[in-house]
């Protein structure tokens, strides 16, 4: 059977600029949108991680005040950028705003709280930045050794501030590369070990293609190649954990350069992000931060009209959601308080369906349920998806992330205004979920005996194209441990999963 992996704490995150956080965090609609994520989770193991980036010397007091307001409200951790001063380029070093400001660490600790800060990320896409300055990024990141020198210069200054405000110096992240394939695993591990007194996170970015390409469509977000690329990247760099740093995709979205209308703002992009996030988790990644910018097609949040679909605007200047936001809603309802993630095999009534499934066994014995997430990545094919699950289950129900009422030809590029999770939709005026009660469909459980004699159930779930379905299976209440019973030992960390098996014509699971 396929191995399960523990769900990392604080996995899901959002990436935006300091200025954008300053505009959003005090906005009541935005606050409601963030708190929507936690309506099904009463634990503190799955906080949202805000990655904030920009010029720290340009941050105004009003921005810090807004971020501080949000920090008091949100169940959140923070990954904060500090500048990577490139001292070997005179035109950059001479620019005062491009220099690292040590006071930024003190300001962050005071405004947000030291206990809520995960790490300080040094720089943002230094390989792209060097290239943009007409300097070969290969020379900067690899052959010349300049990046290593510049990082160490910043780390040396930052460590004294980190020790003062956090009691540790291991609070830095990097390299935040746009194209980390410049390095291999050996190089990445060497960088982590060489900066062991400073680095706790190894970060990279992940996009499928350029938003400026004209030869792609929303259908490309649903193909197997984008999943295969994620598996390749995670298996290539997941080994940085052996060197002492966690791997995190610090910035991710469908297409870089802001995305593309009718691709990045669709349910196809939401389904892609949901499945890609879980795939990366299974292969060693400890977190993702989906990027949102100013009035871009791939945004999670918008203010005013940005040129997308007018029905997603309705004349309001309140903060409102984009399609990828529904992937976050679905993730938090599926994961809840965490547990162990397993890939699940599926059988298909329609061979054209491209389906994948995941299961979560909660870590808390008091949670008497198992949850599954079935994802149909086909852009047009619908049909029944069969899943066999081992266990003694008493009842089941499901909720759907879908585009209710749209014909199949329009589902893949449906935008936020046409998307629902269990019949609920985000109100464009208030940011709250409406209607207040989620619609759950009943589910018939066919009792079966699995190979090896184990008891289980067979589920046959109808799935439309481009959709995700959360299935909840209830189990009999687990007996409470006896009083004063010793706590069980911590399980050892599982080995990295093996590559996915070859696909069969009837099975599209990992």
Q: Counting H and I runs of at least 4 residues, what is the number of helices?
A: 13
Helix content: 25-40%
Structural class: alpha/beta
Report low-confidence residues grouped into runs of 5 or more: 90-94, 500-510
Radius of gyration, CA atoms, in whole angstroms = 23 Å
Query: Globular, elongated, flat, extended or rod-shaped: what is the shape?
Result: globular
| Strand fraction | 15-25%
Largest sheet: 8 strands, antiparallel
| DSSP strand tally | 26
Report mean pLDDT, rounded to a whole number: 86
The end-to-end distance, rounded to whole angstroms, is 11 Å
Q: What does it look like?
A:
The chain is α/β, with parallel strands linked by helices and 510 residues long. Helices cover 26% and strands 25% of the residues. It contains 13 helices and 26 strands. The chain has helices spanning 18-24, 28-36, 61-73, 90-93, 103-112, 126-132, 137-143, 146-166, 185-194, 224-237, 267-282, 325-335, 408-411, and strands spanning 5-6, 12-17, 48-53, 76-82, 117-122, 172-177, 199-206, 209-210, 246-252, 255-256, 288-291, 301-302, 320-321, 340-344, 347-348, 355-361, 369-376, 383-390, 395-402, 420-421, 425-426, 433-434, 441-442, 446-449, 455-463, 467-474. Strands 1, 14, 16, 17, 19, 20, 23 and 26 form an eight-stranded antiparallel β-sheet that branches. Strands 2-3-4-5-6-7-9-11 form an eight-stranded parallel beta barrel, surrounded by five helices. Helix 3 (61-73) packs across helix 5 (103-112). The longest helix is centred in the N-terminal third of the chain and has 21 residues, at 146-166. The protein is globular and about 65 Å long. The chain starts with a strand and ends in a 36-residue tail after the last strand. Residues 90-94 and 500-510 have low confidence and may be disordered.
